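From the pipeline queue, job 12 of 40. The input is one protein chain; the requested action is below.

Action: predict structure.
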Amino acid sequence: MSVPTDSKVTFGGRFARELPEMAVSWGADKAPEPRLLALNEQLATELGFEPEVLRSPEGLALLIGTSVPEGATPVAQAYSGHQFGSFNPRLGDGRALLLGEVTDVEGRLRDIHLKGSGRTPFARGGDGLAAVGPMLREYIVSEAMQALAIPTTRSLAVVATGREVRRETMLPGAVLTRVAGSHLRVGSFQYAAATGNLDLLKRLADHAISRHYPAAASAERPYLALFESVIAAQASLVAQWMLVGFIHGVMNTDNMTISGETIDYGPCAFMDVFDYSTVYSSIDHGGRYAYANQPLIAEWNLARLAEALLQLIDDDQEQGVKLAVGALEAFRPQYSSAWLAGMKAKLGLPDGVEDEVASPLANDVLALLQENHVDYTAFFRGLASAVRGDARPARDRVLDVVAFDAWAERWLALGPDADAMDRVNPVYIPRNHLVEEALEAATAGDLEPMTRLVDVVARPFDERPGLERYAAGAPDDFGAYTTYCGT
């Protein structure tokens, strides 16, 4: 069946065509009773779809992959990955399919990808399915990230399948339709390198350059320029995660994109009380992917990308290592610069404030939050009130008020801009207790809490009357929070 005739969308199969060694042709499982749970109408329009078409039976079939549009070539992508530090040479899309690529209304090539569409040859014993809760979690959190202007994959739709999924209990199943600049990962390059096929590795690198960093093609060393571009993108991305208190939870190399988009919202969460050691993932027993470790893990993952690219960077291995190490050494200063610029914005500091002044001021306030168990998001949003003459929204959250007053005196002396602070410090994030409330209701058939939460986090910086509970921290009885991968 083709895409309905009034759709403006034309599908292509560029990845499958250019990299057939990394694409297993496959089809989605049938869904007994498909039912739309969430449709991102703004994104649909951006892609050229008519939202009302996607709501039709034919549109739902497209969104879950049971109707393959003309030009699409559904494939399960092959990739490797270091999972919690251990290398698995053959991971791949065990429960996902790349339906194909479309060109959006701005001329950008975007992947249309299905998650929870059934077992593939990469399933490794899994059932290939997904439950409603985890798929709606990805929808909520990815749209919150988009609203915060943090590079991210997007959620086009979540469709219930009418099939139950066995986890700890039987749960209603769903498919997520995901949109991305591409699904190329560090693990994609690890897979190509592990095959020993240099031509495949080169075609993969050329594909990545063409899709994401075309300027690298004209560089003296195109593949070194590709590596440098990914380093810069990831340094910026992880700095932005840290600035909003986002914890990815599973930063395996197969979950780090070449594009610099956030991908895979499984065991992820936004931090409530500030704590460098925060871990929300049920499987991260050692804290490898704790909040404070995210920049270090990003650097580690990029080192694995360097290893995969060495043969392309230079024919001489020793020279290739030297060039790659030199490029990777830029990660820490790039990350630090991006993070400090973001902290200066959160603190509303004028342009003339030197880094040597701003850096200790930023680190000292985070130490204050750590020592006093302060809500990260609420503190920074309340801090602007101190500039306007009322320090209570921030000060009352800190037990050691003497330490706060001493820090605030230093900060206020620099002339911070309260309005500028309000433009970068969100009022609303997807609070963990609200996410769980929404997912529990949706699993039971009530979509209103989820829809309401998405509407709130879509405008994170605009404080609105009647939404006070969305800005408040978790109730005392919420307890310790744990998230799961959903498989």
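Job complete. Residues 349-416 form one domain.
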